[in-house]
TrEMBL record:
Organism: Oncorhynchus tshawytscha
Family the UniProt entry places it in: Belongs to the AMY1 family.
Gene3D superfamilies from the UniProt entry: 6.10.250.1060
Keywords of this entry: Nucleus
GO molecular function: transcription coactivator activity
Alphabetized CDD domains for the sequence: ZIP_MycBP-like
Protein name as annotated: c-Myc-binding protein
Gene it is expressed from: LOC112235982
First and last residue of the signal peptide: none
Location(s), subcellular: Nucleus
Length: 93
């Protein structure tokens, strides 16, 4: 009987920990959103991940971001070179 009470105590401590951290509220809100969703998603787990913010970027989004990053790095390099040239001109005058 003492073992049963010890595990209940641990469960209660864990429940309080989850409640204090806001985990229970977050899970409840996401599950309610899933319940109230008129068109239930094919993959409920993906729905939960997406609404909890753990879903990664979509592959298409990732590729678009990589391309944008490459373009911006090239522009930055050109601007740095231009800045260097302009500073040299100012020093000469």
């Amino acid at each position: 009987m003492a073992h049963y009470r010890a595990s209940e105590s641990k469960r209660e401590q864990f429940r309080r920990y989850l409640e204090k951290a806001g985990v229970l509220d977050s899970l409840t809100n996401v599950l309610v959103a899933l319940y109230e969703e008129p068109d239930k998603p094919n993959n409920a787990l993906d729905f939960l991940k997406h609404h909890l913010g753990v879903a990664g970027a979509e592959p298409g989004d990732t590729e678009a971001l990589r391309l944008e990053l490459t373009e911006l790095q090239q522009k930055w390099d050109l601007l740095m070179e231009e800045n260097k040239d302009l500073r040299n001109r100012v020093r000469e005058n």
